């Protein structure tokens, strides 16, 4: 069993920054593939960023590449998503998700069995 709790969302103006946190319990983040997804109203939940010891560097959706950075703090059992240069199209509920490392790498929404409750990010024009 893995529990995930996101925090750090809020309202920010265009060009601003936010850092999202996802605290995990039940497993260490070093033994779990972690990913960030987001869902805007009326749209499908989409992959944003993923991090795992099974790959050499984090993976990012093209829409956030160069602006968002995923990282992990093993001591705090927490993963982060640093979001810079935010734009209105980044407005969404952001979710962190976990997949057991032994299941292999996937950035597909359907392959994740553990989800946080989501945190709202709103970027004003």
* Low-confidence region ranges: none
**SSE series:** EEEEEEEEEEE
Q: Largest beta sheet, briefly?
A: 7 strands, mixed
- Shape label: globular
Helical residue percent band: under 10%
Instruction: Give the beta-strand count.
Output: 11
Short description:
The protein is mostly beta strands. It is built from no helices and 11 strands.
Explain what you see:
It is a single chain. By secondary structure, this protein is mainly beta. It has no helices and eleven strands. It has strands spanning 3-7, 10-13, 18-25, 32-39, 46-51, 59-60, 68-73, 78-83, 92-100, 114-115, 119-124. Strands 2, 4, 5, 6, 9, 10 and 11 form a seven-stranded mixed β-sheet that branches. A four-stranded antiparallel β-sheet has the order 1-3-8-7, with no helix packed on it. A hairpin with a 4-residue loop joins strand 7 and strand 8 (78-83). The radius of gyration is 13 Å and the shape is globular. The N and C termini lie far apart (40 Å). The relative contact order is 0.32. The mean pLDDT is 95.
List keywords for this structure.
125 residues, mainly beta, seven-stranded mixed sheet, four-stranded antiparallel sheet, globular
């Amino acid at each position: 069993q893995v529990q995930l709790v996101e925090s750090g969302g809020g309202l920010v103006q265009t060009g601003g920054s936010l850092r999202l946190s996802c605290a995990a319990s039940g497993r260490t983040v070093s033994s779990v593939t972690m990913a960030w997804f987001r869902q805007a109203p009326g749209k499908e939940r989409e992959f944003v960023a993923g991090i795992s010891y099974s790959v050499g560097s984090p993976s990012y959706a093209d829409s956030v590449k160069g602006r968002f950075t995923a990282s992990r703090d093993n001591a705090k059992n927490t993963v982060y998503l640093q979001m810079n240069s935010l734009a209105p199209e980044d407005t969404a509920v952001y979710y962190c998700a976990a997949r057991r490392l032994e299941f292999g790498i996937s950035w597909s929404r359907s392959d994740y069995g553990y989800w946080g409750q989501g945190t709202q990010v709103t970027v004003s024009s």
